[in-house]
Amino acid sequence: MVETGLVYLQLVQPASSFSGGEAQRVKLAKELSSRSPGRTLYLLDEPTTCLHPEDVRRLLQRPHWLVDRCNSVFVVDHYLELVKCADWVIDLGPGGGEEGGSVVAVGTPEEVAECKESVTGRMLKAHFIQREAHEEHEDWNRDRRSSRRGWDRSRLQD
Fold first, then answer.
1. Cα–Cα dist 112/26, whole Å
2. How many percent of the chain have pLDDT more than 90?
3. DSSP of 70-108, one letter per residue?
4. Does domain 1-87 have CATH number 3.40.50.300?
5. pTM of the entire structure?
6. How far apart are CA 61 and CA 32, in angstroms?
7. For the range 115-124, what are the long-range contacts, defined as Cβ-Cβ under 8 Å and sequence gap of 24 or more?
8. Were 104 and a residue from 93, 134, 137, 141 both cysteine, which residue would form a disulfide, CB within 3.0 to 4.6 Å?
């Protein structure tokens, strides 16, 4: 239950009071606790709804665990942190409701990020650019700190 982000539920709480996402995660927790023989298809419908980001992080580890045991996991979600971790993305759109339902892009998150017609792709691209900028900034800070330490050492030797 902890691994699926349901640590806040109480044992005395009636199941009829669970939201759809909570009920789905209770079922997932039950599956995770059993010894699955593999070859099972898990369909998760927006499992990140109403979860705290830390609980989402924990939940993101579970699909990989299921796949590693020869299961298939199909997730329907809009949460970018989940989409970017997918092995394969099928982006439906171009909009929602009456304006949706067509396949706009398919592929890895990086491939979908290159599709200009995909809203999800544009969001992924912005995320990847932001991540690269952050990584470059971290590299720059690391280099600056190490060069500063070298300068300090050389100055002490003189």
1. 31
2. 25
3. T-EEEEE---HHHHTT-S-EEEEESSSGGG--EEEEEE-
4. yes
5. 0.69
6. 12
7. 115/91, 118/91, 118/93, 118/94, 119/91, 119/93, 119/94, 120/83, 120/89, 120/91, 120/93, 121/91, 123/80, 124/80, 124/83, 124/84
8. 93
